[in-house]
Amino acid sequence: MLRSFVLTASAVALAATPAAAATAAHPVHKVPATKTAAAKLPVKKAPVKKAPVKKAPVKTTTKPTTTKPTTTKPTTTPKATTTPKATTTPAPKATAATPRTRHLIVNTHGSTAPAALGYDVFDTSASGLASLPAGVQGLVWLGQKCPTPADAAFRATVDALAHDSRVYGYYLSDEPHIADCPGGPAALKSRADYIAQASGGQQQTLVVFSKQPDVVAFRPAVTDITLVGIDVYPCSIAHPSCDYTKVAEHAGWVTSAGISLSTVVPVFQGFGQEAATGVTPYYNLPTAAQEQGLLAAWAKILPHPVMDYTYDWGHQGSSNPTLVDSPALQQVFKTYFATGAVR
After folding, report:
1. Helix (H, G, I), strand (E, B), or coil: what is residue 105?
2. pLDDT at 98
3. Residue 48: what pLDDT?
4. What secondary structure letter does DSSP report for 24?
5. Which has the closest alpha carbon to 132: 122, 142, 141?
6. HSE, side-chain direction, 13 A CA sphere, residue 167
7. Do β-strands 137-141 and 121-124 pair in parallel, antiparallel, or remain unpaired?
8. Is residue 188 a contact partner of residue 226, using CB atoms and an 8 Å limit?
9. Relative to the CA of 305, which of 53, 118, 121, 193 has its CA 20 to 30 Å away?
10. 3-state secondary structure of 339
């Protein structure tokens, strides 16, 4: 993407109450004993009838019936199966504990309207921080297409902003290409490391990628950046119905490079090129239904990213129309940010 200016992320252990061992094992051994006794003499039949011994077993069998209360105790333990209610309560707790997703919008051109839709991170310059609406932080653009090492001017800017609560972090590069910038990863590392040191690790560093080789070359393990933006623009002249398979494909670049999905910032298409100037039109502005399809595709892979990114709000040479032109798209994003629902 081209930028005009920017920016500034189970199981209820049913303690299976072990059933008390049945005492019927002993009568089984007595069955062969009575058979052998009958084979020897029928005289023994009289003692057997008179003997109260058999009555005793009858009484002992009635005694186990008093153990039925113990079987009723297990039936009361199923009340402990109301502990699944305890398993449902952790679910909301887990949801509540999930860090909220931040929502980044770029190219606002000074407009504060995106804040009403739920966008709470705007791209900005250092000087634009003062004009951010309440509740919105800035992602300060200190970017370069091909990053260069941190110099005195860069360090001075970061020093001035490192403890500014209005600063969410820094946009350090937009779609750098390793083929054109072989020294970029090392240079980017010097910048990301300085920001981490100056801010005590409190501020984020974002780089956005559009090609797999660049994801590999500039991965966090090499550059120490904290946020990896992956832009997927599936709606185009070539794919008028939008090719959502690109979402899984691009996300696959990240995992195959050993990058944690927890660092990924999905970039949503909020622009077209139907009225763009200076470029051959290729991308189409998604319809509301198409945007919902894109959000759903990303949600299957990354339902709760640390931040998402919509490109973009205002026009620039390579993007026109944009989100500012479509109230229907604006409503899709507003609903999604407020409820997580894509329909």
Report:
1. strand
2. 67
3. 42
4. T
5. 122
6. 27
7. parallel
8. no
9. 193
10. helix
Residue spans of the domains in the chain: they are 29-90, 100-339
Residue 329 near residue 323 (C-beta atoms within 8 A): yes
Encoding tokens for residue 91? 């679910």
Give the pLDDT confidence score for residue 343 in this predicted structure. 72
Residue 60 token pair: 């002992």
Q: What is the pLDDT of residues 269-309, one digit of tens each?
A: 999 999 999 899 999 999 999 999 999 999 999 999 999 99
State the angle between helix axes of 184-199 and 152-161 in degrees (0 to 180), rounded to the nearest 10. 30
The residue type at 267: V
Domain 100-339 architecture = Alpha-Beta Barrel (3.20)
Low-confidence ranges of the chain (pLDDT < 70): 1-98
DSSP β-bridge partners for residue 207: 173, 228
Residue 312, classed as helix, strand or coil, is: coil
Evaluate whether 137 touches 121 at the Cβ level (below 8 Å).
yes
Neighbours of 315 (CB within 10 A): 19
Taken in order 253, 257, 258, 259, the sign of the CA dihedral is: negative
CA-CA distances (angstroms) from residue 65 to 30, 70, 77, 319? 21, 10, 19, 83
Determine contact, residues 294/284, Cβ cutoff 8 Å.
no
